[in-house]
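Objective 1b: paired records.
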Amino acid sequence: MRLAFDLIVGRAPWLEASVTRMLTRAWRGVLGALVLAFVALPGHAAAPLSLDRDVMDMTPWLHPLNDATAADGDVTTEPDAGKRWLALDLVNPTNDDLHRIVTLEIPSGGIRRFLAGADRNGLFEVLASEEDEGEKPGARAQIIDVGGAKAADLYLDPLAKATFALYSEGPLDGATWRLWKPEALAASKQSETLFMGLMAGAALAMSAWLFGLSVFRRAQEPAWAALALGALVVLILGGSIYAIRVEALQVTGAILIAAALRFAVSHLAWNYDRPRVALMLDGFAFAIVGFAIALAAGVTYARPLVQLLAAAGPALAAIVALAESPRGARAKALIPGIALMLIALVAPAFVPVGWVAQVANVSVLADALFTAGALALAFAAAVPAEPELDEKAVEELSADGRKAREAEYRYALGLAAAHQGLWDWNFETDELFVSPSVEALLGLESGAFAASERKWAELIASEDVQLYADSMNAHRRQGNSSFTLEMRMRHAKGGQRWIQLRASCIANAKGKAIRCIGVVSDITGRKAQESQRQTDETADHVTGLMLRNTFLSRVDGIVASMQSAHGRRHGAVLAIDVDRVRVVTDSMGLAAGDRFLAQIARRLDHAAGSEDAVARLGTDEFAVLVLGSRGDEDGAQVAQRIRDALSQPVAIGDKEIYPAASIGLALIEPGHRFGGDVLREAEVAMYHAKRTGRGGFEIYQPEMKPRSAERLIMDTDLRTALERGQIELHYQPIVRLADGSIAGFEALMRWRHPQRGLLGPGEFIALAEETGLIVPLGRHAIEKAASELKRWQTYFPLQDPLFCSVNVSARQLFRHEFFEDVIQILRDQKPARLSLKLELTESVIMQNPESAARALGRVKEAGAGLALDDFGTGFSSLAYLQRFPFDTVKIDRSFVADMARNEETPVVLRSIIRLAHDLDMSVVAEGVETNGESSRLQQLRCEFAQGFLFGQPMDATSAYNFIALKGRGGSPSAPRELPRHSGPARIPRQL
């Protein structure tokens, strides 16, 4: 052993003399022994090596042995510079055995081990040789395993001196050799193992959470982050706790980087916004995994490519993500993780050597920073796509922060405008955003417009290009403005599409338009119908049959002819309820339900006579007017033919549906005054038929619907109430929430009954609807409200004229005389334009949407305003806001009352109000009874409100005095004539 050591080390005579002098001085004290221990090599004049410290950096006391001396004295050179011997001289100046452990810390250790440039890198062998040979060796050394790495275990007898030769392989630039006490090393490794275990546990828990999140969201982004963290767990354990082969660590590291790149692509939606960057990063991910597998298989030249790709790919992703961070919250969420990982990778190269020597396990600290950065990046997967700003933040946004507010606005509008496409042109950046549904409408792939408005304009038909350009230029010059534009656009697969753009230009504080945002709709079908023929306003679009109002008008004519001396024709009305209509619609879809109804309608029309009339009253209700000399017999025969026709199956696709109908019959008699009375009796008989089972038939008998004496008296009194002046209008104030000033009133009908006192509309309006008296009562209400409104506007001339709302029923709206009545009233009273507002509910519109749209358009052109009452209580309110020309939306009182109980109600109200404002409509909240409700509505940007908090319904005199006290005008002034077209074009939000 001594000979082998001499051949390797090649000890010189001067070395033996130095060691002898050190042993002599060791007896004089510990300090002298330590000094002599470091003069063994005169060329390494370093501070004394203190053997009583738990751990210390011993790198300065090691000297390389690159020359080996043979037995014959010849000198040879080590052939491989990566393999080296290092010598350490130690002296034990104590009377106890000296036991120390030498470890080697490599800068590329830990998690970054897979990027190392060599397969073998570290300490592999140790030899010991004492100065004086004896029977018992005084120095011993062996290689031991410490936490998956090799270490040298050194023993030195009391007062002995020895030289230890350490053999290492691989590049060791920046490596640190440390000398440990065994108990200190054990404690350090235990702490390191615990720390690394905690990091691995945190990463594993985050990975499991992200995997569950990906399943819940059905998204790829959390799944890629979970895969990257799983690979990180393997690297943590393989770098400190378990001995894992270098090849496996290289493949795992490649998977980590590749999954991280895929996470960045999906997180920042680069596959849509930056397809080239996404393609490049996907190429990096695929290549690094491929080359890592090749390197593990033994292809050594793949190592530089793996290292290059591992540095270039993440660097490119970090640069692009940081560049996008000012424009999006999701990019900003990546900044903390990127910063921590950059510090972990770059900081060790800039830490002074002296600092590294004083701190053990520097690589563990770097691994901790790297793991913290990875967890921060993975946590960004939970960041929502478009975070909604809270109310306080919205109020504090300035003009420079408009872009962030509009991102929230776009999100809210997209939720509200279901089945529509968004169109958003930023004039300042000349960027155009369109939703994928708009691109699909034109047959284009997602991202085809590439944020370019020019590409959009290129698809406009040549006949409409000038119209588009002129309209956009005109509204840009106006600043804040709204418009509707219909134009043709070319489809990618040929042909054209009619497109409707309902948009608003938004101006900055200087009045300059900076953005135009709107909704795109496909109106090709509507345009095709308009070009072919004018739709019959009285026909149902599914069955082609007449609707309820037209049918009642026909029955009214028969009833009137019977009351006259010339009318001798008899007849009957059949009310038919068809079974299984809702079952077919719910199970097979709306299209199948429409086909089923169309076939039922054809059978009913075939069963009826040539002079009979067939109508559709509701979803599954029909009616037949049977004319003949003997209405009961003819009606019974028609009913039997209908029952026979509906007993046969109806083929819907590959299925056969067996319908059935319950039929009620009522005879038209001279005692009837309105067609509605006959239809109501037929419906009563039909309900009795339904009780007997499917396919029942009943003829109306008076005992089927007994009427109390009180109801009969009410019916009789109501017919004469209008002639006797008992019908009054009371007015409930509508105020501005901004300053509490009076803005207008809602006219509410009251019946001052001679015996029962003042009756509200709930006690007689339903009866008026049934008997048809609602028509004259409604005309009286409109005429009286218009007269009172003209009086208010004359005596209280305000900058924004007062308005008055009047409720309109379906029986009024769909009468041919209704339009002429409104025109005549407006011409006679001459109120300010659009200040007389007609209120309609969804139920009125749903009876005949096509006819309602045309009737409302004519009324609006005549100068009357339109309000949608009880908004939000139906299932299709959002569609009505765009389809019908309303200028005011009235929020139902149920929403106002529910604000304090349901935290989701204010969110719904905010969306309704924003959508109404975008469509250039004002908003009135009904049923406000507390100051808290008023304040909350004002925070939600609601302009007007009515309720008992501001005033109860009052008669005309009290309303006049109320205006004098609460209005802006103070006391009333002398009357003056208003210009015919004075006042706003609508009830604006500025009122």
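Objective 1b, second protein:
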Amino acid sequence: MNRKETRKNKFELLNYVNKGMFVTDQKLILLFWNKNLENSTGILNSEIIGKSLIEQFKDLESKEFKNIIKKIAKNKAPIKITFENEDDFFPSVLSKNYKKHFDVNQIPSSDNSQNYLIFSLEELDTAIAKQPVQKSLNKDALQEIHFLRNSIEKLSESKKNLERILSTSSEGFFIIDNNAIIDEVNDAMCRILSRPKEKILGKALSDFLNNENKKKLKQELIKRATGRSSIYEIELLLPDFTSIFCIFHATPHYDNAGMKIGSFVMVSDITNHKNTENELNNYKKNLEKLIIERSEKLITSEEKYRKLTETLTDGVFTIDFNGNFTYLNQTCEKITGYLIDDFIGKSFTKIIAPKYIKSTLEKFKLAKSGNELPLYEIEILHKNKGSILVELNVSSLYDYNKNIIGRIGSFRDITKRKETEDRLRENEEKFRSISISAQDAIIIMDNDGNISFWNKAAEKMFNYSYQEAIGQYLHKFIAPEHYFDGFNKNFPEFQKSGKGNAVGKTLELSAIKKDGTEFPISLSLSVVKLKGKWNALGIIRDISQIKEAEAEIKSSEQNFKALAENSFECIAINDKQGNYLYTNTKTSELTGYSIKELLKLNVKDLTPQQDVEIVMKRVRRRVEGKSALKNFESNLLRKDGKIVPVEILATKTEWHKKPADMVFFHDISVRKQAEEKLKKQTIELKERNEELDAFAHTVAHDLKNPLGAVIGFSELLNDEFSDLSENEIQQFIQHIYKGSNKMKNIIDGLLLLSSLRKTEVKTEVLNMNRIIEEAIDRNSQLIEKNNAEIVFPEKWPGALGFAPWVEEVWVNYINNAIKYGGEPPKIELGFDTENSDKSDKKMMRFWVRDNGKGISRENQKRLFKQFERLDQVKIEGHGLGLSIVRRIIEKLDGRVGVESYSDNDEKGSIFYFTLPIENN
């Protein structure tokens, strides 16, 4: 078939329209001339095809007509324009039978290579409509018309049946145009939106969305503009401003010409699934995945609605009066595992589990009589899984004349939903069993502040029965009045967000029993969302006995008091491999993991790497019943990486009839810190005792001689003053002055040494030139007396320190260099970085070199110790100097040292100290 014949067949249906219709391309070349025009004008289709419309009808040569055609042609999208002008243009050959105006509709060709222009002419009242058109049609044309009418009736019937299929489905459905305006909606969608159909049709889909979901819709519409289907989750707003969660399965919608005119959208309300997730909290998510398949372009009305059933997540089927399947959608294959061909023409009883056949037959009989049946559950056979549980909905199937011709139904696999419900019931039963056997009171407060759960332990603790407690306003029921203001202030925030000052904490409070007795309690509070609202779950323990015990041991040590105040233990149970089977809330608080996270972890995950081997060995031996250490200290690795020392009591137990390891442990960080502090204090006390011994030694020896001289000469002056000459008196007073001055220097040194331990100073950049000058000046008398020679650099590097202390260091070093130097002393002061600590490149070394005989290695070890003096015979003075130097430099983050050459030919010593270098 050539292109011309193909094009002719494409427009063949225009022969059966009661209008004059012809088709041109964009250059106005005639492509088709229908039968109505042939009969009214006498011009045959074959005679006019391929000719120019303008040349054929001179009336159309007007400029206005050509401009309008150009305007239509410039618009690439389909367009329809009606224009009239009786004076300027209209073919005279057409004016006898048709009104003087055109309707022009522009549509694309099937290959989009060009657009067609379809011209429609409406007949006059006395037009050709009165003529017997059928007489001019041949027998084949009459058969075509008869076939077309039958097809239209069947399509209408099919459309109604398929619309009924959509109405029986629990899935929502709607159609939107390219601007997201809703054109069509089913009853299920009205139920989902809680609005009547007239409140939905003609509305923009965005009217039912919040701002965030409007953005998501815009993104999805962009996807479908490219011809792609999409599945996404979105929130819909209800009239009461609450929202529901839905799954949208959207597919582009095309017209017969292949142009995208909107989208088909199937909607599943998953709000209940979302709420179930929130209510289960720490239990695994078990949402049923929605799998929706879409088909290709919807060309005819019957194909459009048939394809819609294929996108449903429900299986859809029809059966005849004999109970045999006549139609099944693709979802039936997915749910049952069988192919559609395995069903068609076979009885529905072949797929139903035997025990449900009788009851299902009875329900189908009701459907046959026209009764609508409620949803009910049955088991059907699966090709690979035995049987599965489904939810079934069946109603009567009608033909075009509203006669019942069979049954139509839908079903969905609810196996996962039932499993979720069973797990929920199981968890509820576990919670109920735990709450009944628990020694602690377990109370649930709803979002209005009323008691909604009250276990046996609560009855015993507060002396209120379950019936007395349920529905009571919790805080006025069991809380002292002085808590009301704080509760009333924070309760609105809790109602809205589930947050509060006490949530997630363990608090010690007071409560009131039925007889008005106020008693102390320990409250652990958590939150849970039930039916979309926040509820508080409190675990309460009567700590009256603990408080009484605390009162009795107030005089005990602080560590014991702290232990009593935090008497709740962390409890964990693990199997032989170290996998956690159970942990309590205290364990969660100490480790930083939630209980849900802990149950996925192993003992190894909470143990520092170096301790894993020995800890796991103990776990295995205890679970196997072998000898193993039960009470010991270990380290616990928190979620944040912090290592916490713990004390552990472990023993073998059973969990679900299997051997396991039960561990009680608590944080001993405070105790460890106290032990470390005590250890440090012991060392410091020992050092101070040594200092005290040395101090006593100094007082006993170094102060003894000058004090004896002072006392002796004072007694001579007192006893023999009248017999002494003026010269002798002057000598005695000079001896007393020297002795007193010597004692003053010793006492000043002791005071300086003592103050260095507790004095804190702010370091700054030192003016070393000035410090050196001051130190030399303070030693000037000793320099002059010993004829000492001192050399030093003109410039000194910057260093950080405290000037008065550093001056004291230089004074001591220079003083010692003069005392222990050669005769006469030759002293050199200097600095370098050559021998500084290689691990700390930001230090500067300062030193004093003398020309003395040097110091032996043995005596070098005694240097810088408090109250040491190596040469008690030759040198006057005391042993405080180098001790003061050491303490000063260490306080300034430096170090001291000595280099001496007494064991070789080179004599002399170098005393040095280091200080940090300034940043720049």
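Residues 669-701 form the longest helix (33 residues). Residues 459 and 465 are 5 Å apart (CA to CA).
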